[in-house]
Amino acid sequence: MEQERQHIVMLPFMAQGHFIPFLSLARLILRRHPSSTITIVNTPLNILSLRSFLPPDDPSYSPVHFASLPFASSDHNLPPNTESSDSLPGIDSLPLLMLASESLSPHFDRFLSSLDPSPLLLLADIFTSWSLPIARRLQIPAFTFSTCGAFGTASFSSLWLHLPHRLHPESPSFPVPGFPPSFRLHRSQMSHYMRVADGHDAWSTFLRRQIRLCFSSAAALLCNTVAEVEPSALRLVGEICQLPVLTVGPLVDSGHRSGREPGIGVAECVEWLGAHRPASVLYISFGSQNTIGAAQMMALAEGVEASGVPFIWVVRTPAGFDMTAEFEAERWLPEGFEERAAQGRRGLVVPRWAPQVEILSHGAIGGFLTHCGWNSVQESLSRGVPMIGWPLASEQFYNSMVIEEIGVAVEVARGVQGDVDARKVERVVRMLMQGEKGREMKEKAARCEEMMMAAVAEDGEKKGSSLRAVEEMFEMAYAMKQDTAF
Ligand code: UDP
């Protein structure tokens, strides 16, 4: 049975941030089970972009196939050809896309029913949990893959399910159901949409439905994390979702192409970094879709400059302005900032997009000021780079908490609206890059790097925890397939 050719169907949510970890998971599965085939299902334009993410001529992806389901964005009040969250005019229209994604259900049902023999397993996304009852009806084992870490998944799920802040309207902080009683979350650690949610708005309607379906209908939850890095969060998420949890991370760096035009080439970055001492440069980036406010950008620039620490900063037009517009340094940065930075290679300002993985892999990088997107966190830790957290949205607030808890990061600011103090930025940057506490954080980050490498390593019979989790997933699916009463 183990060696039989087995078919797995994957249904990621319609967003680049979900496609990449699903593709990395496909690669991990194929590494363990090269005779499997994997079909990734999505809407036509997303299938086109998924194909374009694959590195050309990489044979490890040849057992990956794609299937398109019909989708017309204009039927859902979305702009024409809008099939993924990355092409939305703004985050305000995300609920339209989320609700529209459920219209794929009858098409997915027909697709899954048409497969003969029926697949071994469906791997759904938390946001595509509407597909789980279809799989159950067809007696196909179905698991959910959360592209977040364990603590992020636990917090996000419990908060959306229970909206606990509504029970404490006068209090700035509140307890979270399922978490230890001493744990309290602050209102500033919630996205605007969660803060104003009342359980009947479009965000909570969709997310609560998907989270409930996941908890009730998935056979297990796969998390994009490493068991040894998040041990206590693992127990927490298991208790909250009442499902077996399998950790399959770190799902990073599989050579996917982003499709974005970088503001700087890899060679130029490497050459610039090559002129700096080991672990002396701070890398600053707020991910693929977030950006900070205009006043915050000024304060960050002042603080970093005052610290005297060399930096590479990926800049984007501030929040509230046209993100697709050309970055105007003279408008958004202190006067003469770029020129002073260029002198003696003190700093490199990169517009829009940088080759992040290559930058973080360079020995000259000693710290990462990040918005705490989970991919960025894993990319940083898997290279032993400690962080300064500045979470801006969504589960980034909880990711920031967990990396502080692990001792590999310190939070400097929070959200797009809040005041940012240039002196605090200066102090925190110095502390991370030059202080004793920063040195301790670097040591802890190096230990995380070792744990992450070990999780996907194999030495004869000895397999890392994430490889064992993939085995367990197959064993559970085989057992369920044989048990027709499941
Ligand atoms: N990224 C990059 N260059 C940039 C900004 C981001 O390569 O200038 C990549 C980064 O390496 C990561 C992804 O984009 O893989 C961002 O994912 P993350 O989960 O950190 O944040 P999100 O963009 O989803 O908020």
TrEMBL record:
Keyword Glycosyltransferase on entry: yes
EC number(s) per entry: 2.4.1.-
InterPro entries in alphabetical order: UDP_glucos_trans (IPR002213), UDP_glycos_trans_CS (IPR035595)
Pfam families in the cross-refs: UDPGT
Alphabetic keyword roster: Glycosyltransferase, Transferase
Domain of life: Eukaryota
Single GO MF descriptor: UDP-glucosyltransferase activity
Family according to the record: Belongs to the UDP-glycosyltransferase family.
Protein name stated in the entry: Glycosyltransferase
Taxonomic source organism: Vanilla planifolia (Vanilla)
Source species taxonomy: Eukaryota, Viridiplantae, Streptophyta, Embryophyta, Tracheophyta
